[in-house]
Design a protein that fits this description.
Blueprint lengths: L2 H10 L7 E4 L5 H12 L3 E6 L2 H9 L9 E5 L5 H15 L4 E4 L14 H27 L4 E6 L2 H5 L5 H21 L4 E8 L11 H11 L8 H12 L10 E4 L6
Parallel strand pairs: 1-2, 1-4, 2-3, 4-5, 5-6, 6-7
Helix pairs in contact: 2-9, 4-5, 5-7
Organism: Amycolatopsis antarctica
Pfam family, one: adh_short_C2
GO molecular function: oxidoreductase activity, acting on the CH-OH group of donors, NAD or NADP as acceptor; quinone binding
Amino acid sequence: MTDADRILGGAIGYPLVGKIALVTGGTRGIGLETVRALAEAGATVVLTGRDEAKAKEVAAGVDSVEGASVSAVGLDVTDAKAVSTVVRGVAKEHGKLDIVVANAGVLEDALLGMVSEDLVDRMLSTNVAGTIHTVQAAARAMMRKKTGSIVVLASIVGERGSAGQVAYAASKAAVGNVARSASKELGRYGIRVNGVAPGVIETSMTEHLGEEVLGERATDTPLGRLGKPEEVARAIRFLASDESSFITGQILGVDGGLVL
């Protein structure tokens, strides 16, 4: 891709040409659609997943624009040292790191009386500690260039709570505040930190709710339907790009108006 192509691409629909992006938990659902959205906008993307073989298989199947690429590496975000190693490795290989999407997370439902210690540990170690590890490592990699965009995955449940999701709601409320707090620390380094808070999205993580419950959630949503993972991915792409250059510390609801 020539310099002219890069300039033209940025103007007509490839705003991420030349950008290096890392997406955790990028093998399915919102994470996978985010990888696709970033790659289609011209970014070179590295996705992570706990199962490295699966992650590499997924990466091989994602199309990207000319001059970009999609690769993968195995990563468990609960391991702080591993997160640091992967982030530093990506930054070293490509000479910089422009975008990090802290998407890796888990969801388990349980009524309050059935919430176990193990369930709480899984929610907090992956959703909260994993996000903090990722944001911390990303910030260190971005500080030298004094620029970068970090996007975390919060949830509407973290904003308004949900019966049967005490632990998950608590973890996602924490994730939103990771973004808000980190943005206040990192703004002086030119690093923006934002989040998206999806509503009920049609992914494998919500299939367990069943058609009846999902139908009720769709009816409760002002737009009258469930969201699609690609709709969340487009919001993430916006926050990752320079089109949102004066936006930081915000949690963008992508919920069809459900939070109203």
